[in-house]
Design goal:
This protein has helices at residues 32-44, 60-70, 72-77, 106-120, 139-152, 165-172, 195-202, 240-260, 264-273, 288-295, 304-313, 326-330; strands spanning 3-5, 12-14, 17-19, 49-53, 84-89, 91-93, 99-102, 125-130, 155-161, 179-183, 205-209, 279-283. The protein is α/β, with parallel strands linked by helices. It has one domain: TIM Barrel, CATH 3.20.20.100. The strands form 3 sheets. Strands 3-4-5-8-9-10-11-12 form an 8-stranded parallel barrel, surrounded by 4 helices. A two-stranded antiparallel ribbon has the order 1-2. Strand 1 (3-5) and strand 2 (12-14) form a beta hairpin. The two termini are 36 Å apart. One of its GO terms (molecular function) is oxidoreductase activity. This is Aryl-alcohol dehydrogenase-like predicted oxidoreductase. Keywords: Oxidoreductase. It holds the Pfam family Aldo_ket_red.
């Protein structure tokens, strides 16, 4: 496994991380045994970084990871410090699963962390971060509260998620920030304008989620799947004419992948990897076959000609539709 660093102040980690959200219902039903087997296979392959959120399945995802790490199969080959657990907190949900706001107040930091430690059955979290900027709470207060948990030994490092350049600068004035988790892919390149240069100026790594745009540019998605009722049913990029346009981009990318002798998913992941050694893609695999395909991207070397061909197939800002519905976009400090 290739290694990359989580920023100037953070630890070394694997060049790919495993995003675990899809194992807890966000993309439709998942198989518990296969999810745990995928977690084990990822760690066996050298994946160090496991990403979750305390609101994924209302705690289900954390408990699933806790079970996987406590499983005898894991214990025979690995120990707790062989993985880095990254946790997002702050998103509020009701019993029906609806999103009802954010709370990143100092009290919420302490309370959420206490429950997270219990669900994961660990004594510390490697990277802890608010899922979004809480508009009611200055970022200095949120980061300061997590910094107190660092001092107390419950957290090792602080990260942020989906915040803009100004917020990043305010945050690092309080405590070092090791990484910014944010969407970045061939069809989500907004961070290249201000956020990525700011991260590089401040020594902050990017942990990129959505590198396959929730499966849209994986090469496996088709219009019939778009009739489902999971998260993607509400995504503008998966709707109507937008979907037709975006799948045409995927077919253009497929031609580049075929010429290279790799899959569409592998070339899309390899493109993100090629954008800098300070970028760590998070792979949302919830099955071992999809994990193996994603790991194959590490063996793909893209030449200048390959990168130019990819750019022609999927030009910057060519995707149709926003990456979240309007209310979701409005909650993103990174989009302001």
């Amino acid at each position: 496994m290739l290694r990359r660093n989580l920023g100037a102040e953070g630890p070394a980690t694997s060049a790919l991380g495993l995003g675990c959200m899809g194992m807890s219902g966000m993309y439709g039903p998942s198989d518990r045994a296969e999810s745990i087997a995928t977690l084990h296979a990822a760690v066996d392959a050298g994946v160090v970084l496991l990403d979750t959120g305390d609101f994924y399945g209302m705690g289900h995802n954390e408990m699933l990871i806790g079970d996987a790490l406590a499983d005898a199969g894991f214990a025979r080959g690995h120990k707790r410090d062989d993985v880095q657990i990254s946790v997002k907190f702050g998103a509020l949900r009701d019993p029906a699963g609806s999103w009802v706001g954010y709370d990143a107040s100092p009290a919420a930091v302490r309370n959420s962390l206490a429950y997270t430690l219990q669900r994961l059955r660990v004594d510390h979290i490697d990277i802890y971060r608010p899922a979004r900027l809480d508009p009611r709470v200055p970022i200095e207060e949120t980061v300061g509260a997590i910094a107190d948990m660092v001092k107390a030994g419950y957290v090792r490092h602080i990260g942020l998620s989906e915040v803009g350049a100004e917020t990043l600068r305010r945050a690092v004035a309080v405590h070092p920030i090791v990484d910014l988790q944010i969407e970045y892919s061939l069809i989500s390149r907004g961070i290249e304008r201000d956020i990525l240069p700011t991260c590089r100026d401040l020594g902050i790594a990017i942990t990129a989620y959505g590198v396959l745009s929730r499966g849209l540019i994986s090469g496996h998605w088709n219009k019939d799947q778009g009739k489902g009722v999971d998260f993607r049913a509400h995504s503008p990029r998966f709707q109507g004419d937008n979907l037709d346009h975006n799948l045409a981009l995927v077919e253009a990318l497929r031609q580049v992948a075929v010429a290279k002798g790799v899959s569409v998913a592998q070339i899309a992941i390899a493109w993100v990897l090629a954008q800098g050694t300070d970028i760590i893609p998070l792979i949302g695999a919830r099955r071992r076959d999809r994990l193996a395909e994603a790991l194959g991207a590490l063996d793909v070397t893209l030449s200048p000609d390959d990168l130019a061909a990819i750019e022609r197939a999927v030009p910057k800002d060519s995707a149709a539709g926003d990456r979240y519905p309007a209310h979701g976009m409005a909650s993103l400090d990174s989009e302001r």
